[in-house]
Every structure is written in structure tokens, then in C-alpha cells.
């Protein structure tokens, strides 16, 4: 379960970093997505990222795994849903990254459950 907690923290921090870079680059003003669509997507991902970090920390400090299971479930949804955008743009690299993250997330969930 410790490895799953560290995985959650690492992925959560990477997600926060990803969106910090994207927001600075003006992702909310891009023409390929409606502002409401991307805004809600970013909000959901930031909430998932924050919960991953908190839940991982709870487990590492001796707390139970319940919150980590919820956070990893949110991550699983994210890594299954997110590649669609990149596949539509014919960007195989990011889509493959999400495939790897899907496998790792399922493994983390199994380890916790």
C-alpha cells in the first residue's frame, strides 16, 4: 500500500504541474475547446490531483486506505477519458502515456484493495 500512496502523490503532483504549465500557456483561450468545457475539465483534474496528494499522505502517516481508493478511482476515470483529446489530434505519445498510467493505476488500486 505504501507504493500506491507514493504513486498517488507523484501523479497528483505531476498533474498539478501539468496544469500549471498549461494555464500559463493560455489553455483557457485555445480555440479547439470551449472555455466551459476545458474549465470544468481542469477543475475536475485539479480536484483529483489534490485528493491524490492528500490521500497518499494520509496512508503514509498511518491512516486508512479509503480516501486513497476514492482518489485512485478518480485517477482511473481521468486516465481513461483524457486520451480521447490527444487521439483526436493524432498525438500518439500522450495517448500512450495515458495507457501506461491506466495500467499503473489499476495495479495501485489492486494493491490497496
Terminal residue distance: 9 Å
Which blocks of ≥5 consecutive residues have pLDDT under 50? none
Derived structural class: mainly alpha
Q: In angstroms, what is the radius of gyration?
A: 14 Å
- Biggest β-sheet description: none
Mean pLDDT: 94
Work out the helicity level.
over 70%
SS elements, strand count: 0
Overall body shape: globular
> Helix count, per DSSP?
5
Walk me through the structure.
The chain is built from 5 helices and no strands.
List the helices and strands and how they pair.
Layout: H1 2-24, H2 35-60, H3 66-81, H4 83-88, H5 92-112
Helix pairs in contact: 1-2, 1-5, 2-3, 3-5
List keywords for this structure.
5 helices, mainly alpha, 113 residues, single chain, globular
Task: Provide a quick synopsis of the model.
This protein is mainly alpha-helical and 113 residues long. The protein has helices at residues 2-24, 35-60, 66-81, 83-88, 92-112. It has five helices and no strands.
Amino acid at each position: 500500500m505504501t507504493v500506491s500512496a507514493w504513486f498517488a502523490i507523484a501523479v497528483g503532483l505531476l498533474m498539478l504541474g501539468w496544469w500549471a504549465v498549461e494555464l500559463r500557456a493560455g489553455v483557457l483561450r485555445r480555440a479547439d475547446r470551449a472555455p466551459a468545457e476545458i474549465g470544468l475539465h481542469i477543475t475536475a483534474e485539479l480536484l483529483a490531483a489534490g485528493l491524490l496528494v492528500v490521500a497518499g499522505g494520509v496512508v503514509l502517516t498511518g491512516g486508512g486506505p479509503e480516501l486513497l481508493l476514492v482518489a485512485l478511482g478518480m485517477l482511473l476515470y481521468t486516465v481513461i477519458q483524457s486520451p480521447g483529446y490527444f487521439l483526436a489530434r493524432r498525438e500518439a505519445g500522450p495517448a500512450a502515456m495515458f495507457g501506461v498510467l491506466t495500467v499503473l493505476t489499476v495495479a495501485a488500486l489492486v494493491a490497496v484493495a
